[in-house]
Write a structure and sequence with these properties.
Elements (H helix, E strand, L loop, with lengths): L1 H11 L24 E3 L13 H4 L6 E3 L20 E5 L4 E5 L2 H11 L4 E6 L4 E5 L2 E5 L3 E5 L4 E6 L5 H4 L1 H12 L6 E5 L6 H15 L3 H14 L3 E2 H8 L2 H13 L3 E3 L11 E4 L4
Parallel strand pairs: 9-10
Antiparallel strand pairs: 1-2, 3-4, 5-8, 6-7, 8-9, 11-13, 12-13
Helix pairs in contact: 3-6, 6-9, 7-9, 8-9
Length: 280
């Protein structure tokens, strides 16, 4: 079966090879800038996603507003010989989030890719706690707030550093003092929860959302509802002929919870099987 799939992929379907792009080909146009937002200064509300390119048109009162700075309680050092550090854009809130390791980068993407989460805070104000009778202070890596107003504090740490850093003991001490005032739950996340497949799937979802075309998402959903059965993404790509646009639309629809994807914690590929849900 695998050999037949590979043969079909490489030869019969000419997938994985360089193919000519027809003159009539045109990518779907994103609705909004990939980062920042288009606003009418003094008019567009802070919580608004901004104007679309179509809405902005040739208006002279429209300005591009860059992503707002991180609200982190401390500045992270961007120089490190042992970990990746930097900032990424929280698409929904047009704000920068900081990360100090690849695990934190993936964790940030995972919570951003969850539609149920309405607020992501990186490095909120440090909290006091006692450990073995000695006072300490600790800064949580992330705090999220869900649509049901549940707040969760996350400590992101590699498995092999838990004992040395006493991460679990620290989180237990923090929970005993600061739940539910600071957060309802205090959770430690390692690579056992933040798997590479799960994390990079979330990165893919957020990258697709950044260049979302709502009209094309609606088109892909209508096609899926018309098919009415599970289908591989690559078959849908072949049917519609727009590989990149179909991929982006599928991931946006997954974020919207309008489709299901088979084994969502395994790495997405164009062989992944998807199923449309009934539109509410």
């Amino acid at each position: 079966m695998l050999e037949r799939r590979v043969l079909d992929y490489l030869t019969c379907k000419e997938r994985g090879t360089v193919r000519a792009i027809p003159d009539s080909f045109e990518f779907a146009r994103a609705d909004r800038p990939a980062a920042g937002r288009l606003i009418v200064p003094g008019v567009t509300p802070d919580d608004h996603p901004g104007l679309t390119f179509e809405e902005a048109g040739d208006r002279t009162d429209v300005a591009w507003q860059p992503p707002r700075g991180s609200t982190a309680s401390r500045e992270i050092s961007l120089k490190s010989a042992s970990s990746i550090r930097g900032h990424l854009v929280d698409i929904s809130r047009n704000r920068l989030l900081s990360f100090e390791s690849i695990l934190e980068y993936l964790m940030a993407n995972i919570v951003m890719a969850d539609k149920n989460i309405i607020l992501v805070e990186d490095q909120p104000a440090e909290l006091p706690f006692d450990l073995d009778g000695n006072p300490h202070r600790h800064t949580i890596d992330f705090r999220t707030t869900s649509s049901s107003r549940m707040r969760v504090a996350y400590a992101v740490k590699p498995e092999d550093q838990l004992v040395r850093d006493q991460t679990i003991r620290k989180m237990q001490a923090l929970a005993s003092l600061h739940a539910p005032t600071f957060a309802d739950k205090f959770i430690v996340c390692t690579e056992a929860k933040i798997t590479r497949d799960y994390g990079w799937n979330a990165v893919d979802i957020n990258e697709a959302r950044a260049v979302r075309s709502q009209a094309y998402c609606d088109h892909v959903l209508e096609v899926l509802l018309g098919i009415g059965r599970p289908i591989e993404i690559w078959r849908l790509q072949e049917q519609l002929g727009d590989e990149s646009d179909v991929w982006n639309a599928v991931l946006c629809l997954l974020f919207d919870r309008l489709i299901q994807i088979e084994e969502p914690r395994r790495r997405f590929s164009d062989a992944s099987v998807i199923l449309p849900l009934i539109r509410h």
